Amino acid sequence: MTIRTRFAPSPTGHLHVGNIRTALHNWMFARKEGGTFLLRLDDTDAERSKEEYVEAIRADLAWLGLAADDEQRQSVRFARYEEEFGKLKAAGRAYPAYETAQELDLKRKIQLGRGKPPIYDRAALDLTDAQQADLEAQGRKPHWRFKLDHDSPITWADRIRGEQHFDPALLSDPVIRREDGSWLYMLPSAIDDVDMGITHVVRGEDHVANTAVQIQMFHALGAEPPAFAHEALLVGTEGKLSKRLGSLGVSAFREKHIEPQAIIALLARIGTSDPVEPIADVDMLVATFDFARFGRAPARFDEEELAQLNQKIVHLLDYPAVKDRLPEAMDAAAWAVIRPNLHDMGDVDQWWQVVTGPVSAPEMPPEDKAFLSDAHAELEGLEASDALWKTLTEALKEATGRKGKPLFMPLRQALTGLDHGPDMNALLPLIGKQAALARLAQAAA
Ligand code: GLU
Questions:
Q1: Ligand 1 binding pocket includes 8 (Cβ within 6 Å)
Q2: What is the C-alpha to C-alpha distance for residues 206 and 351, in angstroms, rounded to an integer?
Q3: Is 211 near ligand 1, meaning CB less than 6 Å away?
Q4: pTM of the shown model
Q5: Pairwise CA distance, residues 262 & 267, whole Å
Q6: Which CATH architecture has domain 357-444?
Q7: Domain with CATH 3.90.800.10 in the chain
Q8: Where are the domain boundaries for CATH 3.40.50.620 in the chain?
């Protein structure tokens, strides 16, 4: 069996970190199993679905490295849904109901008031043809419900949650189609999963109750249900899914110079028994992917943890991986020198500026100026080499008797304009002898 997973966002907004995590796990599982990963756009809601979101979803997935092997969209499949709906109607598994939202609400309140679960009472099934005709003559349009089979207990072995059992008699027959003919998500999704050969549905645990009714839909469609894995939801540091997390997506991450590898490394592991580690090679993460390691407790997403992980990941990125995002003249040697100083890629320009100049050193006390003059004279006589810093500081130590901070700090300040930064051994050859002479002369003046 070829594994096939799908990520099924509605293009009614941008992806947020919760959807990204679901997409990632679908992608990782497919990749680990040598299967395929489908992007299914749940765009049945013509009014709210926007092409700009479709494009943003594709672009975000591509940026994250999770591009789909295939793409389908529900909006071109209405004829298919109609066809299966017709069969379900004929088989008595889809039936019309005429209650208004207010009537249903009232029924629920009465049930709750009597201490009963608010399950739809199937009153619509008792309507005679004449009564139906009567309601329609009054201008009422039906919505449609899927008739659950109360005699078939619902069970599945969830890859994350273990054995699941639902008594269909304790569930309402789900509404599958609205009065205006539009589809609710449930039935089209099941039809698509069958038609598109989906073997594993991986999604959030907010869909567990949907799965229970969809399992009966799969059978009613004449198909075997796929396997299911429902993951615990994502929460923020305060323990719930905040509004902030709900809108935190790729554009915010990019603005903060968070690397896709950091997002992937974090989202691959939170909520699992594996530790979050700075792993930039996604194949290593894929190799450890296993539903059995997913916990039942919510996965905590911490932006601070992401920032720290991002820094560690940046320190692992090799030159070819970042080349296109570096200043034109910055080569592999310069990247190696600057990389350990970066919090994130947003710091590159600042450090490159230290190499290329101009830099502005702080005003120095007279004795340091004299020392920097000596340094200038010393450097002038030295040959440019990789050992330039070592040779220069050793000669100055000898000549001036300075050592430690009084020896190094004025030089660093004059040469970089800062009192911290990359290793001067590596930095000075990048700055170059001529530029270094000019900076020493300026700080000594
Ligand atoms: N469009 C649905 C959602 O975003 C898909 C759920 C599913 O994965 O089946 O909730």
A1: yes
A2: 46
A3: no
A4: 0.92
A5: 9
A6: Orthogonal Bundle (1.10)
A7: 80-177
A8: 4-71+186-233
